[in-house]
Amino acid sequence: MTNRMNTVPRWLIPRLPFYYGWVVLVCVCCAGMSRQGGAVATLSVFVSPMTTEFGWSRTAISGAVSLGGILAAIVSPRLGRYLDHSGARLVLCSVILLTGLSNALLSLTASLPMFYLLFCVARMNFAGPFDLGIYGAVSNWFVARRALATSIATMGGMIGLVTMPLIAQAAMAGGGWRAGWLAVGAAVVLIGLIPVSVLLVGKPEDVGLVPDRRNPPADAEPVSDLSFTRAQALRTPAFWVLSLFTLLVYPVQAGVSLHQAPFLIERGLSPAVAATVVSSFSVLSGVATLCFGLVPRWVPIRLRLAMVGGLLSLGTALMLSVHAAPRAYAAAGFFGLGIGGLLTMLPIAWADYYGRKSYGAIRGLALSVQVLAQAAGPVLSGALRDWSGTYDLSLITCATLAAAGMAVAVLAKPPVYRAIA
Question: Taking the model in full, what pTM does it have?
Answer without folding.
Answer: 0.79
